[in-house]
Amino acid sequence: MKLLEYEGKDIFEKYQIPISKRFGVLKLGDDPKSVNITRDKCIIKAQVLAGGRGKAGGVKLAKSKEEAREIIEKMLGMEIATHQTKGAALKVKEVLIEEASDIAREIYLSIVLDRKDATAMLIASSEGGTSIEELAHSNPEKIIKIPVDLNEGFQEFQVRELFFKLGFDKKLYKEFSALVKNLCRLFKDIDANLVEINPLVITTAGELLAIDSKIVTDDNALFRHKDLQAKEDHESSEIEKEAKKIGINYIGLDGNIGCMVNGAGLAMATLDTVKLAGGNAANFLDVGGGATVEQITKAFQIILKDKKVKAVLVNIFGGIMKCDDIANGIVEATKKINLNIPLIVRLEGTRVKEGKQILLNSGIKLEQADSLWEAAQKAVSGTN
Amino acid sequence: MSILLNKDSRMIVQGFTGAQGTFHAKLCIDYHKNIVAGVTPGKGGTKHLDIPVFNTVKEAIKETNANSSLIFVPPPFAADSILEAAHAGIEVIICITEGVPVMDMVKVKKQLNALKAQGGKVNLIGPNCPGVITPEECKAGIMPGYIHKKGSVGIVSRSGTLTYEAVWQLTCQNIGQSTVVGIGGDPVQGMNFVDTLKMFHADPETKAIVMIGEIGGSAEEDAAAFIKEKMDKPVFSFIAGKTAPPGRTMGHAGAIVEGNSGTHAMKIEALKNAGVTVVENLSEIGKIVKENFKITAN
Fold first, then answer.
1. Domain ends where: A66, A100, A134?
2. B-chain residues within 8 Å CB-CB of A272?
């Protein structure tokens, strides 16, 4: 689960990680006057899940309350496209209004799960504010990495190593040490995959401040975090959320071939095969291991909610679930939903002959394929 | 020969009496009778599917001399079950459970590494995996047994149904498999590609290997480095996720392209560079292995 900046900062606050004074969060439809701005200068920030929002007009400085209100009004509802949104635009539904700071220095600080070494890794760089990925590419020597033992927490000697490498003023040591240790504690407590402060700044007054927050938590651990469960999923689209509720893993894509597959790996490979055949998939959809009539019906309904879909490709490898049962499911589901675009079905596995016969005898208008490659080609020509 | 499991494997099932455990254990028993005990805390002393149930893994080992375990325990308790098996001395632990928190796996890995450092022999496969099968000898997982055929191609994969697809294509070409290992799709897991490749490399019966990877992480790149340096057996590979959008998780928690790492292009380049035959079209795995690796199936 990816948290918005202000949600992350709520957590920072609980862990005594210093953040700017916040005047409030406004949602689409809220009155811009309802926020009590108590300083002359403030920053208005679009709450969207995309790095690089500043360059796209999602972060603005206001020099008066009147200007702040104008900016808030314009920003709520605007669409933001950055290098991270890959051409798609995100609608701004919430803005955060906070005090503007005078920045003397910016650094990058994050803790991320290092999957290779199965440990948490603290990553820091004295070059804050920019994309750490670009920096890792252009100047890898400028990146500091220190493994974190989550049971022990961040050790004092590790703080010293980091502190001196970053070249901080000695006066900041105590404050910095507490911040880093708290960040590690937070990472463990909330089952995070990533906690990032970019930038962490030193103000002209010599204070540390987390100017931004990026937190990604582990969906598998949600069962032990009631507070996170209650939060809205800002990443998924409406169709994706609906699919999730009924146990279907769906991700919308740009193409026009709807895909229904069992298993995540095979589903990914199906999208690749569609592309190889000259088409583009409209979605990733994993119906799960037990492809029952109910699941198949729901999956069809979900796929067809996307109006771009011009053909549907079903690719099921019947293992434990037998192909004849799946075929019956497809027949029943197709009757229920009244499908009127080309349907291509590729079944393989247990009792495949019986399954194919059922589809053939059903009288339903569909094309069968013997291989995924053949199915993909048929689906592509079905959209033409 | 094979790796990890064979006809003499003595297996326990943790989470034996639950719905998943019961359903799949029965299919494993039907395939080959390797299951000697079940473990469900509180149900010790009873029998289930005609097999004795114990409260703890330790008791099960003491009574049945078990050496491997298949885990169907629900996500909140799966990590603890893995550790119970490991500390009791089980050598091959296969965890099917999907949805284990990554922080739990970090803890598991740390303890497994400590056990290994003390000379303990333990291999964890999974979690979130289809399991391991040595055709005609031992099925430990949720894969359909009948699609497999005994032979000399080792398969290792991060995905379930994608593995079945590859296995089935090989079987249809009359090419059998030595052992098929589903290492699973989680970011922190037990055995990785390199660990499995090392075993296949050392197994005289395995003559070629099919490796099925996907986007995300660097396991395929690490495998490529190992293959380049150490392996002389032919390796074939398919990597799923060429068209997956960056930043989105495609089903498997581990299948995500983050920034510039874990991309399809990087993995393919590393594998080609290591002399691996890369299969671009999934439907051609069987055909390409057949063309490039002319063995008559056993």
1. A100
2. 240-243, 282
- The verdict on whether A354 is a catalytic residue reads no
Q: Which domain holds residue A315?
A: 238-382
State yes or no: is A108 an active-site residue. yes
Question: Does the distance separating the beta carbons of B146 and A269 come in below 8 Å?
Answer: no
Tell me, yes or no, whether B136 lies in a domain: no
Residue B127 to residue A308: CA distance in whole angstroms: 37
Measured in angstroms, the CA of B62 and the nearest CA of chain A are apart by 32
A193-221 pLDDT, tens digit each: 999 999 999 999 999 999 999 999 999 99
Pick from A18, A201, A207, A204: nearest CA to A107: A201
Domain boundary residue, one of A220, A235, A250: A235
For residue range B160-198, what is the model confidence (pLDDT) as tens digits? Answer: 889 999 999 999 999 999 999 999 989 999 999 999 999
The predicted-structure confidence for A280-331, as pLDDT tens digits, reads as follows 999 999 987 666 778 888 899 999 989 999 999 999 988 767 888 889 888 9
User: In this structure, what token pair is assigned to residue B229?
Assistant: 């340096």
Which residue among B95, B125, B155 closes a domain? B125
Q: Residue B245's domain spans which residues? A: 143-292
| CATH code where residue B155 lies | 3.40.50.261
Closest to A333 (Cα-Cα) out of A374, A301, A358, A360: A301
User: Are residues B240 and A269, on separate chains, in Cβ contact within 8 Å?
Assistant: yes
**ipTM for this model:** 0.90
Residue A119: which of B24, B106, B164 has the nearest Cβ?
B106
What's the pTM value of the predicted model, to 2 decimals? 0.91
Tell me if chain B has a CB within 8 Å of the CB of A266: yes
Q: State whether residue B283 sits within 8 Å of chain A by CB.
A: yes
Query: How do A192-203 and A103-114 pair as beta strands?
Result: antiparallel
